[in-house]
Amino acid sequence: MTTLSETAAAAPGAASIEAWSGKGRGDENFPVGSWLIRRDLRVHVHAFYRFARNADDIADSPVLAPDDKLRRLDRMAAVLDGAPGPGDADSPAAAAMCASLAATGVTAQHCHDVLHAFRQDAVQLRYRDWDDLMEYCRYSAAPVGRQLLDLHGEARDTWPASDALCAALQVLNHLQDCADDYRNLDRVYLPLADLEVAGCTVAALAAPVASMGLRQVLDRLLDRTDELIAAAQGLAPRVRARGLRCESAVIVALAGRLARRLRRGDPLARRVKLAKTDFAAAFLAGTFAPRQR
């Protein structure tokens, strides 16, 4: 039987349905299974990340047709559920995740939820309003935090604050990538209702710099994101596991810092991202995050 570590180490081969983009944990805005997380759980955090990353790369591929994307994502779901066939070759990431779930007893629902979001990405290019975007985040973002919390055996009352944090991170990433998503995939996460209020169309995303109207849209979305980050402040104090509590506090701090950078920066002109000083300051603050009494 293939072990989790053996499966996770496998690279997508010629028969793989995965479409790895080359992105990894180091390309994210937040730590993924850092040294703050308990050592024996890190391999499971990394397995989940790799599963979601590979599914995301399928959905974001500029060369795959929507039907092909859906077929590949369905196969990942089948391998995740232990379907017969060469799962290790078809989807090493899903096979590794299947082994992780078997080892930890965590539900597969969070994995299936993110696959739901990536199927949506394969076929849906526009979002009507903020509620429509938040419904997408319910599947694309919230399961990530819930997976980590379940892996650590945390109580379900941590979910609302975690969902808020994950949604905030998702929106911030959408704002960072708004120009590339439009130019490369014709995908726009900025709600059409907000663009309309500002007198904009999606074509504003093709400009070299943000127009005044588009800047208003970005700031309006950042206002809502700040509310999510404020709600996420309640997460770390509720987390019992010290490492996860500290990492949660770090990520909340990073979200706030990235939101402030996006206030000052223009994502059409250049990618707005966190600096090393942001990570250092957030890690310093998060390391001493207190637990709620």
Structural overview:
It is built from 15 helices and no strands. The chain is mostly helical. Helix 2 (39-60) runs parallel beside helix 6, helix 3 (66-80) packs parallel to helix 5 and helix 8 (142-151) crosses helix 9 (159-176). It is globular, with a radius of gyration of 19 Å. The model is unreliable at 1-14 (pLDDT under 50).
Rg: 19 Å
Low-confidence stretches: 1-14
Helix content range: 55-70%
CATH class of the largest domain: Mainly Alpha
Termini distance? 45 Å
Average pLDDT works out at 90
Could you give the topology of this structure?
Elements: H1 4-9, H2 39-60, H3 66-80, H4 87-90, H5 92-104, H6 109-123, H7 130-140, H8 142-151, H9 159-176, H10 178-185, H11 192-197, H12 212-232, H13 235-238, H14 242-264, H15 276-286
Helix pairs in contact: 2-5, 2-6, 2-8, 3-5, 3-6, 6-7, 6-8, 7-9, 8-9, 9-12, 9-14, 12-14, 14-15
Question: What is the compact description of this entry?
Answer:
The chain has 15 helices and no strands. The protein has 293 residues and is mainly alpha-helical.
